[in-house]
Write a structure and sequence with these properties.
The protein is of the alpha+beta class. The protein has a domain of 46 residues. Helix content is 38%, strand content 18%. The protein has a two-stranded antiparallel sheet.
Amino acid sequence: MTNTKNGSNQGMVPEARAAMDQFKMEAAAEVGVNLKDGYNGELTSRQAGSIGGQMVKKMCPVRRAKFVRESRTRIGHRVEVEYLAGF
């Protein structure tokens, strides 16, 4: 990879590149997309997106936050709120 003027496009450590490629192949197999080594330009946007989505899903597991707060509609009442992130 080449560096741009501002240095934002840094090359990867070779070992990291190999690990990321392996991770991508595993994610592709899990979603049923056949990847080959090298260029995969024939993939549809949906296929490529499903691979990336699977990778993100594995890197960022579901997070939960649960708490109790005052009700916004009933004075004096409390409600339990649960937020789920990672879907």
